[in-house]
# Entry
Amino acid sequence: MMDLQLMHCRPDPIALTTWATRRKLLSPDGDLGYALHALLAVAFGKHAPAPFRYMGAEQGLLAYTAEDEDVFRSNATHAPEEVVKALGLKQLRLRPFPTSWETDKVLGFEARLRPVIRTKNGRERDAYLHRLEQVKAQSGTNSSEPMPSREAVYLEWLNKKFQADNAVQIGYARMEGFSLARILRRTQKGADEKRRTRNITGPDVLFKGELKVTDPIAFAHLLKRGVGRHRAFGYGMLLIRPA
# Structure
């Protein structure tokens, strides 16, 4: 069984924003996902934790890591001072996280998600808008068939992610928050060997509910891996609590 730890640090909002602004790593909406991804990469290199969740200035940043604690702390100690300050690494905390679960264990969960799909041409598409297009194409423009709700489509998307390796079943879940958010991403190197930034608009969704563990080993790997896309940029971390 793998080891897993929960990392917590409290980034300095001013130092974080200053560092990100100087490097043009803030999206037009102020999303910090790419900036935090870059900071964690500078601090921890190949050991950078993902998925992670930034909970704001008061609660700080949470992440799961399976890396050795001594190596992890050593990297944090030797990170550049501006990175240490921006991430709040002087108050870095690590604690062992369970990796052994009982079958049929019921847990509360919370997750910030990016419910998108890859289209045939390789582009990223909001799962809800994609479903609406499918329904219209199948039923015709004059059909009186009711359209599915955004929450229902996103919940179906989440169910598929959970059931992909039979890790868990959803007892119930509700969409607690939704927005269309622009996030920053870097393109792959082009012919000129340069990477360019671009903004991607898509759903930013918060789900809360209860789940039941159906495969303990698969569930442990799900926690470590996260759910959906953009897991290295602040999405997909599955936070759990007693039911």
